[in-house]
Structure formats: structure tokens, C-alpha cells
Automatic annotation (TrEMBL):
This is Putative HMG1/2-like protein isoform X1. CDD domains: HMG-box_AtHMGB1-like. InterPro entries: HMG_box_dom, HMG_box_dom_sf, HMGB_plant. Keywords: DNA-binding, Nucleus. Belongs to the HMGB family. Residues 1-59 bind DNA.
Amino acid sequence: MEEFRKQYKEKHPNNKSVSVVGKAGGDKWKSLSEAEKAPYVAKAEKRKTEYNKTLQAYNKKLAEGANAADEEESDKSRSEVNDDDEDDDESGEEDEDDE
């Protein structure tokens, strides 16, 4: 499709519509034989394999990071809750002493 876009733009320099280029590309693709499509299909399969590997690595990294973040948040929230409770008790005791 990259090659087709370049050729199409050279032949039709005044056309700025993306949809027209897409439709022309689709028509060109449909007119190709299976043998002519083969290199593009192979290239697409290779890119898809690379994409899936990258996606799996990303998801694994994201899951590991999320687990670590959850643990940090739960520890942090526990200490904050405990700290807040202690602060409230201390301030309440001080108010009682002042009265």
C-alpha cells in the first residue's frame, strides 16, 4: 500500500482526499492475483508476529508493574489510614485537655 500511495500521489497530485486513495488501493488489491498478493501477505504476517511479541512483552511488563504498584498502594494506604487515626486521637485528646 505504501508503494501504491506514492504512485497514486504522483499520478493524481491534486487529490487530497484520503478516502479516494483508500478506495483506489482497495480496487487495486482486489485486482491482484494470489501470486501478486503473496509478498504483501508474508510481510503482513511477519509484522503481525513482531507486533504480538511486542504486545506480550508490554502486557507482561504492565502486569508486573501493576502488581508492584498495588502492593505499594496497599502498604501506603494502610500506613496513611493508621497515621490519620493516630492524628485524630491525639488531636481529640488535646481538645479534651484544653477544655
